[in-house]
Amino acid sequence: MERNEKTRALLAAFGCALAYLLAGKALTAVLPQVPEEAARMWAFVHRCAAAPIVEELVFRGIIQQLARPLGERQAVALQAVLFAVQHRGPAGMAYALVCGLVLGTLRSRTGSVWPGMLLHTLNNLLVFAAG
């Protein structure tokens, strides 16, 4: 990857992450004013659709790709650690680290973020249904 491409990829990752955070803040400000059923629907959309797409594109699609010059295993490990850090609490971080390693390995073996998006979505659906 050329330096210009890396810069654009980093800016894209930053832009995606920032847009995702700002959208979350905006929804948080609005949700207390909506009925509980609508709030649950928005939580579902966020956790089961938006989060898997954005996180797979940023962590496995951009960060892992940029870290590949370090070595494939190191790239998988780096994105998994960064993925874990952005989740809250020790238990959430530990679970996210394992998920990040699995999803990163899947990305590495398939060469695509699509299988990871599907698995990430399925995981979040199961967690949402259980919670």
Provide the descriptors you would attach to this structure in a database record.
131 residues, mainly alpha, CPBP family intramembrane glutamic endopeptidase, Rce1/LyrA-like_dom, hydrolase
What does this structure look like?
This protein has 131 residues and is an all-alpha fold. The protein has one domain (3-130). 85% of the residues lie in helices and 0% in strands. The protein has five helices and no strands. It has helices at residues 3-30, 36-67, 72-85, 90-110, 114-130. Helix 1 packs antiparallel against helix 2, helix 2 packs antiparallel against helix 3 and helix 2 (36-67) runs antiparallel to helix 5. The longest helix is centred in the middle third of the chain and has 32 residues, at 36-67. It is globular. It starts with a helix and ends with a helix. The model has no long low-confidence stretch (mean pLDDT 86).
Q: Tally of extended strands?
A: 0
Q: How many domains comprise the coordinates?
A: 1
Order of helices and strands: HHHHH
How much of the sequence lies in strands comes to: under 5%
Unreliable segments of 5+ consecutive residues: none
Rg, alpha carbons: 15 Å
The global form is: globular
Number of helices: 5
Mean pLDDT: 86
Which class best fits the helix and strand makeup?
A: mainly alpha
Largest beta-sheet characterization: none
Helix content: over 70%
How far is the first residue's CA from the last residue's CA? 42 Å
Enzyme class: hydrolase
Domain CAAX prenyl protease 2/Lysostaphin resistance protein A-like: 41-126
Pfam families: Rce1-like
GO molecular function: endopeptidase activity
